[in-house]
Amino acid sequence: MLRKKSHAGWTSSSISPVYLRAQKGVPIGGSSPPTTLLEGHIALTESQNLTSIQSYLLSEESKYPGAKGDFTWVLSAISLSAKSKNYSLNEAYTSTFPSGYQNYLAWAHGNGYSQRNAGTLVADVHRILMKGEVFMYPPTEKAPNGKLRLMYEANPMSMLIEQAGGKSFSGLKRTMEINPRELHERTSVILGSAGEVEKVQEFLQEE
User: Fold this and answer.
1) DSSP string, 66-128
2) Under CATH, what is the fold of the domain 86-205?
3) What does the domain layout of the chain look like in residue ranges?
């Protein structure tokens, strides 16, 4: 059995959403609700040739043994813990975040929370699936709508987190309920352990 604590040192990653094909000639948005997302996958590879994959349908992690050319399933039915005193966030732009995020960070600092931030969306979400916590990519003054791509970053990550028992919101709206208006639409994201996401939203509601 692969130990969870060995999941570090990733060198490459990918996100693969699978959408139901829209009716020919119908543009993204309006007639294409986000529920047409069928699957979300993430894959990471490190120097030891270890690849882990989470799938909406399988919710499993796999180890690729290299020369054998096949996958060995080592973890299934991933279940996200409700609470974890860790958060993942790039605090370099804290001064440009909306006040609710700034107030949450001040609260977290005063209540023994620790920061865990790999700086890579897939790696951070993978760690959340393994250990819990909350990941935040807030809007900023320069990017008031957020920076993650809704269709092929935020949505597949949200699907994985929700199936594992967590939550994913863009501000106070569930990410998976946002109707995309364009292919490369951007959004902010708060995702992870249900209780930790709800705590961030408490501060956003006070803005």
Assistant:
1) STT-S-EEEEES----S--SEEE--GGGGGGS-HHHHHHHHHHHHTT-EE---S-HHHHHHHH
2) D-Maltodextrin-Binding Protein; domain 2 (3.40.190)
3) 4-76, 86-205
Q: What is the pTM of this model?
A: 0.74
Q: 């006040």: which residue's tokens? A: 99
Residue 126 confidence (pLDDT)? 81
CA 89 to chain centre: 12
And the tokens for 106? 């001040």
Type of residue numbered 42: I
Say what the pLDDT of residue 70 is. Answer: 53
- Those residues whose C-beta lies under 8 Å from the C-beta of residue 23, and which sit 6 or more positions away, are 31
Q: Read off the DSSP letter of residue 63.
A: E
pLDDT band at 39; cut points 50, 70, 90: low
Between helices 155-163 and 121-131, what is the axis angle to 10°? Answer: 10
Dihedral through CA 17, CA 21, CA 26, CA 32, nearest 10?
-50
What is the C-alpha end-to-end distance of the chain, expressed in Å? 46
